Amino acid sequence: MVPTGQETVLSQLAHLSFGNGWFYIYVQAATAAVLLLAANTAFNDFPRVLSLLARDEYAPKLFLRLGDRLAYSGGIVLLSLAAALVYVAFEGRTNSLIPLYAVGVFLAFTLSQTGMVVHWWRLREPHWRKSLVFNATGAVLSGLVLLTAGVSKFTAGAWAALVIIVLFLLVTTRVKRHYTTTRETLRLRPHAVELPARSEAGPLAPAAGAAGASPADRETEEIPEEIHHLSVIPIATLDLAGMRTLAYAASLGQPALAVHISTTEEEERRFRAYWSLWGDHLPLQTVLSPYRALVAPLVHYIETLHRLNPDLTLTVILPEVVTRHRRHQLLHSRMASRLRRALRHLPKIVVTTVPFHLPY
Asked: CA-based, 20 to 30 A from 182: which of 40, 109, 164, 172?
């Protein structure tokens, strides 16, 4: 049996064993299904792992974002681009891609088995020694295969996997360092900020006779006395950037309302406790978003507020972290631009930002 560029070895074996009948078609379909399942596993698990890294601040926070289908769209797009780049770089040559695949797979096996060894050693649950031995054996065997494939197939394509792993570790540690430094810079300290004066949110019910007005009629204000404001401040965390935004909104002398999107009830309770300590000088509204979406619930809340109060001009004021280097800006939220796109179709809504400049 000699491999050719026109037919795979599995196809040749199936031809010799079953001819061109239904069994041959079954073997080919089963092979395609296995390959499809392997690719689907990567697209299912890699975005989830990347979201866990983002949660621990080893990857940009944008990978925490869930798409409309409740999938981590950023991780899926990144994996698609990486797969396409690898395919083009190696020109689709199987001889080069297989060593790359082997190193990546057995590295994952080694790390997962080693992680389970650490897990059993720390918890020491019933029968933990037996489980530890099994996982330690798997870690050793996977590590040996990884070492063998990395050394023997280094020039055949395994070098690319090793280079990617080193670059990945370098990037994640730099991202973690940036987030740690930023968090320390933005961290609130007692008596470090001036709390804003108490401000009322103003009327949040529809004004009499205003609900039936057309959008064109509601945008005819041409003098300042005809414009009635309500400032809406989406606040994710109470830090220096958030406090500066709250102070700016309170300084306008207009009714203001702070809004926090909470992904869990525990987070909602924790934020309200922080709010009572640091920021209980403005009315606060919390919105529960169990699917970890942030922009969509906020847009829905602002749209509802606009529909109930058509006579008000809503000014959405967001904190914006500005970095000295443009590459670091990718690690921070771009919610303002997303809100502008989502709310553009509504009249009398203004989206603005209050910048907080990092010293690095």
From this structure: 164
| Range in 14-18, 167-171, 193-197 with the lowest mean pLDDT | 193-197
What gap in Å lies between CA 35 and CA 16, rounded to an integer? 22
- Spans of all domains in the chain: 9-186, 217-357
Helix (H/G/I), strand (E/B), else coil: 321: strand
Burial 204-239 (b: 16+ CB within 10 A, else e): eeeeeeeeeeeeeeeeeeeeeeeebebbbbbbbebb
Measured between alpha carbons, how far is residue 150 from residues 18, 56, 98, 111, 355 in Å?
Answer: 37, 29, 12, 15, 48
For the segment 79-98, the average pLDDT, to the nearest whole number, is 82
pLDDT at residue 53, rounded to an integer: 92
Q: How far apart are CA 81 and CA 277, in angstroms?
A: 45
- Asked whether the beta carbons of 231 and 286 are under 8 A apart, the reply is no
Averaged pLDDT for residues 300-316: 90
Residues 6+ apart with CB under 8 A from 110: 139, 142, 143, 146
CATH assignment, 217-357: 3.40.50.620
Which residue is it, tokens 């050394």?
151
- The β-bridge relationship of strands 284-288 and 256-262 is parallel
Buried b (16+ CB within 10 A) or exposed e, 168-195: eeeeeeebeebbeebeeebebeeeebee
What is the spatial distance between Cα 199 and Cα 98, in angstroms, rounded to a whole number?
A: 64
Alpha carbons 111 and 331: distance in angstroms, whole number: 27
DSSP 100-155: HHHHHHHHHHHHHHHHHHHHHHHH--TTHHHHHHHHHHHHHHHHHHHHHHHHHTII
pLDDT in tens, 94-147: 777 778 778 888 888 899 999 999 999 998 888 889 999 999 999 999 999 888
